[in-house]
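Methods: holo model generation. Sequences were used as deposited, without trimming of termini or removal of tags, and paired with ligand SMILES retrieved from the corresponding compound records. Each pair was processed once, and we did not select among multiple samples. The sequence and zinc ion SMILES for this entry were:
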Amino acid sequence: MSSAQAFWSIPCEGGEPDLWVCMSCLNEVFRRKVPKPDCPTCHGVSTYEAFTLEAIRDWGTEELIAKAVAAQAEDDAPQAAPSGLSAVESAD
Ligand SMILES: [Zn+2]
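and the model returned the structure below.
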């Protein structure tokens, strides 16, 4: 059976922490979204809190930091029509 994880997406203002870490197992982190209906690792509900990558580097396990970096990189990949990114200028 395929088990595609479902997520609630969480809109974040620019500059706000947008990496959501499970405070129960400290083993899952997602960017601008949290898994539903619960944490895939510990099945905790409402256990996610937002942190910056810097903060996670401060106290996270190596595994968690690696996941946070991957989550950030994944979301930085070009996707459909990003909007409101004033820092992005045309390279043309
Ligand atoms: Zn968890």
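The radius of gyration is 14 Å.
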